[in-house]
Amino acid sequence: MAGLIDDPNDPRWQEAERRDQFLRELLKATGWKATRDVVDAARMTFGVSRSTVYRIISRFLASRRASSLVPADRGTPRGAKRVDSKVERVIAEQINRVWLKKEKPNMRALIERVHEACRIDGLRLPHRSTIQRRVDELDVLRAARRRGETALEAAATPSAGNYRADKPNEIWQIDHTIVDMIVVDEETRLPIGRPVLTIAIDVCTRMVAGFYLSLDPPSSVSVGLCLLHAVYDKTSWLQERNIDYPWPVAGIPSILHCDNGAEFHSKSLQAACREYGIKLVHRPPATPRFGGHIERLIGTMMGAVHILPGTTFSNTKIRDGYASEQHAIFTLRELERWLAVEITGRYQQRIHSSLLRPPLAVWREGQGEVSCDLPPDRMAFWTSFLPEARRRLLKDGIHLEKIRYWSDVLSRDLGRREELLVKYDPRDLSRIFVRRPEGHYIEARYRNLSYPAITIWEWRNAKRRLFDLGKRDLSEETIFSALALQRRIEDDAASASAAARRKIVRRPRSAKQDAPIELSGVDTSKQHDGLDDMEFWE
């Protein structure tokens, strides 16, 4: 199917992104209605018939995902390169060797070198416009740096002074930080360590868009859960925590601005942003000033945390002998609620030094310009941020990390030769999400349902220890047995070791109590128009 393209460089996917950018803006302006003006504009831009435009818009309105706009596999896709692949390789090599040099050669010199290389290899000479287009497709900022074009680099680089947004949800900045505070276990009330906060801010209004607090290291999953919290309505989330302050931020940002951490360059994050029309922008390396808004917000939040029992302060000099672990009293859930009150009841209500007004007042003033472009399918939105792998479907199921998974629905696909796309949550390996050939995801569980839910960190650590002991031919039974032994050791050590208590707290909840596994971070209490969650699971 056309909608199952994973390569971002595929011409059909690039055409889908072009259609997405054009249609999303038009439909936002009309309240997501396919008016005559929208249809006429799309027909002229896409060069297709009116009936085809209606079909395209109908598919897009059902999911609001860019993949629904991938053109069919008939004919030559628009933007497809007709040049021979060997000629393309010669052009790319000469651009790298000749064009991207500090000597800044002109276009004529590049064309001559490309033609010379093609003659040597007996290839057809590409037209000068073809070579020019390949140069124009280069990343402007990176090309300017390699060519030493300082003026062009300065013009293409955002600065802290002019990096601004004119309306809400235009630009969000997102980042992680280790919280300056020790939290305790909910059961033993003993210290377990410092959690990680992932938080996003709306640049225009300085409103906190959303956050996610956990004991797990930063990853594309924590980014996805932070965005899930930020994008959707927070009314029920606040009610569950008995918080009465308003938090009206909702909708999908046009731009997500972040640093160069590995989780922000992950394939899953890039694919999810493309799918939902979010432009992912990375700030230049080693330039924290370009993330000034989120850095100041994190500083404000940590300054507030420094008054709480169990704080570690910002450095050891300021701590000055304060015994953080002895004074720690907050659990992870209690700290999450405290941060939510700090954000909604204090930070967003008081006058901001740059805005000279409270962020909440600025948001409400511009609320008419806010596009609450909510993805109809919450589950599909969240899973798009999960890490992925490709696996063959075997007779005994799908194998991931030496664990076998199965669902009765998969029996329909036995015998197919192509690999299936698998999404998984590193915090809970008891289930995976498998994309079937027609594009729908289904949930697959352990083939052996007696195995406990585990995290990917526990699993890999158990495999590594067995490998170090000289055991090379590992099976899932062997690894789960070793994992059970490690958990018993951790449980025995919990009274003395904060590290052991931290590992216990990070276990999936179903490993500690007989309860159904829920999708963490997904607010399913409020439905929106479009596909509901059950349709996502067929």
From TrEMBL:
Compositional bias of kind Basic residues: 500-510
One Pfam family this sequence matches: rve
PROSITE patterns per UniProt: INTEGRASE
Record-linked InterPro entries: Integrase_cat-core, Mu_I-gamma, RNaseH-like_sf, RNaseH_sf, Transposase-like_Mu_C, Transposase_Mu_C
Signal peptide: none
Stretches assigned to the Integrase catalytic domain: 164-367
One term of GO molecular function: nucleic acid binding
Coiled coil: none
Region annotated Disordered, chain positions: 500-532
Transmembrane regions: none
GO biological process entries: DNA integration
UniProt xrefs under PANTHER family: TRANSPOSASE, TRANSPOSASE RV3428C-RELATED
Name of this protein: Transposase
